[in-house]
Amino acid sequence: MKDPEYMRRLRERDPRVKVKTIGRATIYRAAEKSFEELREYVKETVGERTPRDTILLELLEAEAFSPKVAIEAKLFESMKEDLSDLVVTQRVILTPDGKVYLTELRKGIAEGAALIYSE
Known about the structure:
By secondary structure, the chain is an alpha+beta fold. It has helices spanning 4-13, 35-46, 51-61, 80-88, 104-117; strands at 18-22, 25-29, 71-72, 92-94, 99-102.
Protein backbone atom coordinates (compact mmCIF):
# COMPACT_ATOMS: atom_id res chain seq x y z
CA MET A 1 0.00 0.00 0.00
CA LYS A 2 1.25 3.44 -0.87
CA ASP A 3 1.56 6.01 1.89
CA PRO A 4 -1.59 8.05 2.73
CA GLU A 5 -0.13 11.29 1.37
CA TYR A 6 0.46 9.67 -2.03
CA MET A 7 -3.10 8.34 -2.05
CA ARG A 8 -4.49 11.76 -1.14
CA ARG A 9 -2.59 13.40 -4.00
CA LEU A 10 -3.71 10.67 -6.40
CA ARG A 11 -7.32 11.23 -5.36
CA GLU A 12 -7.02 14.98 -5.95
CA ARG A 13 -5.68 14.38 -9.49
CA ASP A 14 -8.11 11.66 -10.50
CA PRO A 15 -11.80 11.94 -9.54
CA ARG A 16 -12.27 8.22 -10.26
CA VAL A 17 -10.30 7.38 -7.13
CA LYS A 18 -12.78 7.06 -4.27
CA VAL A 19 -12.26 6.88 -0.53
CA LYS A 20 -14.46 5.01 1.93
CA THR A 21 -13.88 4.69 5.66
CA ILE A 22 -15.34 1.67 7.40
CA GLY A 23 -14.50 1.31 11.06
CA ARG A 24 -10.75 1.64 11.46
CA ALA A 25 -9.94 1.14 7.79
CA THR A 26 -9.70 3.71 5.01
CA ILE A 27 -10.18 2.20 1.57
CA TYR A 28 -8.98 3.86 -1.63
CA ARG A 29 -10.53 2.40 -4.74
CA ALA A 30 -10.72 3.11 -8.45
CA ALA A 31 -13.51 0.77 -9.44
CA GLU A 32 -16.97 0.57 -7.95
CA LYS A 33 -17.32 -2.26 -5.49
CA SER A 34 -20.41 -3.46 -3.73
CA PHE A 35 -20.79 -2.80 -0.03
CA GLU A 36 -20.49 -6.54 0.60
CA GLU A 37 -17.14 -6.70 -1.23
CA LEU A 38 -15.85 -3.73 0.77
CA ARG A 39 -17.11 -5.20 4.03
CA GLU A 40 -15.44 -8.54 3.37
CA TYR A 41 -12.19 -6.80 2.48
CA VAL A 42 -12.25 -4.82 5.72
CA LYS A 43 -13.08 -7.95 7.75
CA GLU A 44 -10.10 -9.73 6.19
CA THR A 45 -7.85 -6.73 6.82
CA VAL A 46 -8.97 -5.93 10.36
CA GLY A 47 -9.50 -9.50 11.47
CA GLU A 48 -11.93 -11.11 13.86
CA ARG A 49 -14.08 -9.17 16.27
CA THR A 50 -12.10 -8.32 19.40
CA PRO A 51 -13.31 -7.95 22.99
CA ARG A 52 -12.90 -4.18 22.55
CA ASP A 53 -15.16 -4.29 19.51
CA THR A 54 -17.68 -6.29 21.56
CA ILE A 55 -17.68 -3.64 24.30
CA LEU A 56 -18.14 -0.83 21.80
CA LEU A 57 -20.92 -2.68 19.98
CA GLU A 58 -22.78 -3.45 23.19
CA LEU A 59 -22.57 0.19 24.27
CA LEU A 60 -23.79 1.24 20.81
CA GLU A 61 -26.69 -1.22 20.95
CA ALA A 62 -27.64 0.09 24.41
CA GLU A 63 -27.39 3.66 23.06
CA ALA A 64 -25.05 4.48 25.94
CA PHE A 65 -23.92 7.90 24.69
CA SER A 66 -24.11 9.95 27.89
CA PRO A 67 -23.88 9.54 31.68
CA LYS A 68 -27.69 9.43 31.88
CA VAL A 69 -27.87 6.26 29.77
CA ALA A 70 -24.52 4.72 30.72
CA ILE A 71 -24.54 1.01 31.52
CA GLU A 72 -22.98 -0.90 34.40
CA ALA A 73 -19.26 -1.58 33.87
CA LYS A 74 -19.67 -4.88 35.74
CA LEU A 75 -21.47 -6.25 32.66
CA PHE A 76 -18.02 -6.37 31.04
CA GLU A 77 -16.35 -8.21 33.93
CA SER A 78 -15.00 -10.92 31.61
CA MET A 79 -13.38 -8.19 29.47
CA LYS A 80 -12.11 -6.11 32.38
CA GLU A 81 -8.63 -5.51 30.94
CA ASP A 82 -10.02 -4.41 27.57
CA LEU A 83 -12.54 -2.11 29.24
CA SER A 84 -9.76 -0.63 31.36
CA ASP A 85 -7.70 0.06 28.22
CA LEU A 86 -10.70 1.76 26.58
CA VAL A 87 -11.19 3.93 29.67
CA VAL A 88 -7.48 4.85 29.95
CA THR A 89 -7.36 5.85 26.27
CA GLN A 90 -10.66 7.75 26.69
CA ARG A 91 -12.52 5.64 24.16
CA VAL A 92 -15.25 5.13 26.72
CA ILE A 93 -16.02 7.16 29.82
CA LEU A 94 -16.29 5.55 33.26
CA THR A 95 -18.64 7.45 35.56
CA PRO A 96 -18.00 7.77 39.31
CA ASP A 97 -20.88 5.36 39.97
CA GLY A 98 -19.28 2.57 37.88
CA LYS A 99 -21.11 2.99 34.58
CA VAL A 100 -19.65 3.39 31.08
CA TYR A 101 -20.70 5.12 27.90
CA LEU A 102 -19.25 5.83 24.46
CA THR A 103 -17.46 9.03 23.58
CA GLU A 104 -18.72 10.78 20.43
CA LEU A 105 -15.65 9.62 18.46
CA ARG A 106 -16.09 6.01 19.54
CA LYS A 107 -19.79 6.15 18.71
CA GLY A 108 -18.82 6.66 15.05
CA ILE A 109 -16.21 3.93 15.23
CA ALA A 110 -18.70 1.56 16.86
CA GLU A 111 -21.17 2.31 14.06
CA GLY A 112 -18.48 1.36 11.54
CA ALA A 113 -17.71 -1.83 13.47
CA ALA A 114 -21.42 -2.65 13.48
CA LEU A 115 -21.39 -2.46 9.69
CA ILE A 116 -18.34 -4.69 9.47
CA TYR A 117 -19.42 -7.36 11.91
CA SER A 118 -23.15 -7.49 11.15
CA GLU A 119 -24.21 -10.68 9.46
